[in-house]
Amino acid sequence: DEMNTEGIKNIQASLILPSVMQNMNHEPIRIHGRTHDSLQHYPLIEHSEANFNGFQVYISQRTASLHELNLGDPLDVLIANETYTFFISGIVPNDGIFYNDTTAQFHLIVPHETLASILTIDPLFNVAFANGSTSDLQASIQAFNDANEHFRASAVYEEDIVEQMVSGQRNIFYVMLGFVLLVSMIILYGSFKLIITERTLVIGTFFSQGATKNDVKRVLYIESLLYGLFGGILGVLFGVLLLFIAHRFTSPLYAYGIYEPFSFNLFFILYALIFSVGFSLLSCYIPIRKIGQYQVRDVILGQLENQKSLKKRSFFVGLSCITLATIIVFFFDSLATTLAPLLLILGLVGLLLIYPYMLSFFIKRIFKRLYGRVSFTALSMNNVRTSRALRGNISILIIALIAVLSVISLGKGTERIVTEAYTTLHFDIMVENIQTNDPQTRTAIMNDLKSNPLVKADTINEKATAFGTSNGHYASVEAINPHIFESLLSYLDFTQTDGSNAIKTLHDETKNHAIIAASTASRLNLEKGDETPLTINGITQTYTITGIVDGKLWMSGDFFMINIERYKSVHLMHNATIYFMTTEDATLVVDDFKEQFKNYGALVMTHDEMQQLNQEQNQMMFNILNYFSLFAVIVGAFGAINNMFISFLQRKKEFAVLQSIGGTSYQTRKLLCFESIFTILFSALIVSTFMYLHIKIMSKVAANVGLPLDISFVFGDVLPFILLSIAIYLIATIPLLYKSRHLSIIQEMRFE
């Protein structure tokens, strides 16, 4: 009654308590004390004739199904250290508070009056849910907090916190998407070259009938637009189908047959179609523009010159790009992190510009030595040097292989650093999610642990994680025991530039001191010595920044650290996670601790169990990165097939000349096979020489997007993908071998 409703509306009050189910498997539960008139949001699927009062309870349909419960069944619930028996009088849908019900943890609704009487309190509430009275949620929250001294409102869903949690992964996906788009652009470029090459005689006919070059260009541009439009429509349809499937299988409660409603922004379809058309037009611009350089007579006679000499200018531009990228990466560390995406492009562009000249220089000298001994091998190697289409294949393979190597190295680097973080977390047993925030109960738990002969008392450590705000920006908070935290976690280095240890500034639990991560300092524009407000649990306190540390990947590298006693006394939060070492083998005594904490609904795990669980949780991201690698390989294969056909069409006359002077179809096919082998071999050699620099750049890219990883290249990790690339490329040669059998010498040499 004392609460001022300024800023809020549609209030739904509850008396919520964490508890434990006694007559089942000690599952942790949350009890919601509700008045009868508030239950209109939960239409009953089944109910008894009894009114909702006394020791009645409502459960969700999923809980009833999972635990084989029916109307009238008893539930023994621990409340205030006493066991009370409630009887099921209603089963409701899995909506609202019941949405996240699982086998191990679920919710109950009991009469508010009954719960209040058990606790011997007046009919009061401890939690209220409401809507903001204005469209600006933060303004509504601020209005409520300004109008109330003893009540605090906060957002149920903190978008900034979720954004921060997923931003690093999302940015990595964008980098990988960039590789795929680059490969795709080269493929479309090659496709239009193939279209124009195959239509040379048709274009010549147009010219002979009076069509201008602009007329032909216009036709091809319209075709490109239609390719983008129809491809976009098919892509959207297929994409929505994939999204629907992914949505179903990644719903948090998929195992229980419960799915979030499938929806997405319909404007994304429009954006996708615009992108598809624009991407198609951009990719075909250069091949179509080159029609303006054609001589009409040569087009009509099919005598276009397909071989073009390499220009040293490209070599020097590429060399400058690679040199600049190398200097910045190895000598300007902070600048390299800031410019990482640009350095990635510089390095790749430099490689694509420089390798044709280096390849030509290398092959010319080998060709002279091999030609008299293994003529066809030498000819196929020389064809790789002179054919722009085959060099295009090398470019596609280079990009595809670099994409694969980048993704796998990044994934393995993340996996390695996560494992390292948990390896440096020193404890035997962890106890979390203790279902009480009562300080007396927490003190009793700690005293029991200190007197337990299975526990090394001097290693007991409490650590709590909370999300709050600082000057309106999200803040991830770690509340620690600074006296022994370094012995718990050796992953972080708290040494400051002046040689002092920042964590010692948190020892005095009477002072509002905080240590922050370097990325937090950068994001909030804070320096050592600054003061900043920190709001946790609706309570704001000003803290002085006494240290800035490299957060690495701990808490995503973005956090505040405060003394856990300040966390308890100022912000009234007591439910921390407990870590400790045991006097016996942890795997042998963990069950004893599970028995000890069963009445609190706590989760008890050994160090190895927690590390395994974390790796399993991160496995989805690693799998997605692997799918990107596979996708890059498959997309690259389409590009390689396109370029191989272009190369064959452009050199049909050469093959005809070869056969006219005594060459056989077998020798032509042999030549094509050797070309494919050399294309793969040269691509692998080029990527190998560039990989050291590229991995260094990728480390900077990872740091730029919030994942400070020291990425290393492990050949065994990427070998399966390299072998897959080689297999796909060699298989793509088979259609050409078949096509070469039907080569007509007269048709190809009719103008000679």
Describe this structure in words.
The protein is of the alpha+beta class. Helices cover 55% and strands 15% of the residues. It has 23 helices and 17 strands. It has helices at residues 61-66, 112-118, 137-147, 159-198, 200-208, 213-250, 267-289, 296-301, 312-331, 333-338, 340-370, 375-386, 388-423, 439-450, 485-488, 518-524, 564-571, 586-596, 607-650, 652-660, 665-704, 715-740, 745-748, and strands at residues 8-21, 28-34, 46-47, 56-60, 74-79, 82-92, 106-111, 127-132, 429-432, 461-470, 473-480, 513-517, 531-536, 539-549, 560-563, 577-580, 603-606. Strands 13-14-12-15-11-10-16-9-17 form a 9-stranded mixed sheet. Strands 1, 2, 3, 4, 5, 6, 7 and 8 form an 8-stranded mixed sheet that branches. Helix 9 (312-331) runs parallel beside helix 21 and helix 19 (607-650) packs parallel to helix 22. The chain is elongated, with a radius of gyration of 34 Å.
Secondary-structure map:
Elements: E1 8-21, E2 28-34, E3 46-47, E4 56-60, H1 61-66, E5 74-79, E6 82-92, E7 106-111, H2 112-118, E8 127-132, H3 137-147, H4 159-198, H5 200-208, H6 213-250, H7 267-289, H8 296-301, H9 312-331, H10 333-338, H11 340-370, H12 375-386, H13 388-423, E9 429-432, H14 439-450, E10 461-470, E11 473-480, H15 485-488, E12 513-517, H16 518-524, E13 531-536, E14 539-549, E15 560-563, H17 564-571, E16 577-580, H18 586-596, E17 603-606, H19 607-650, H20 652-660, H21 665-704, H22 715-740, H23 745-748
Parallel strand pairs: 2-7, 4-6, 11-15, 12-14
Antiparallel strand pairs: 1-2, 1-5, 1-8, 3-6, 5-6, 9-16, 9-17, 10-11, 10-16, 12-15, 13-14
Helix pairs in contact: 4-7, 4-13, 4-19, 6-7, 9-11, 9-21, 11-12, 11-21, 12-21, 13-19, 13-21, 13-22, 19-22, 21-22
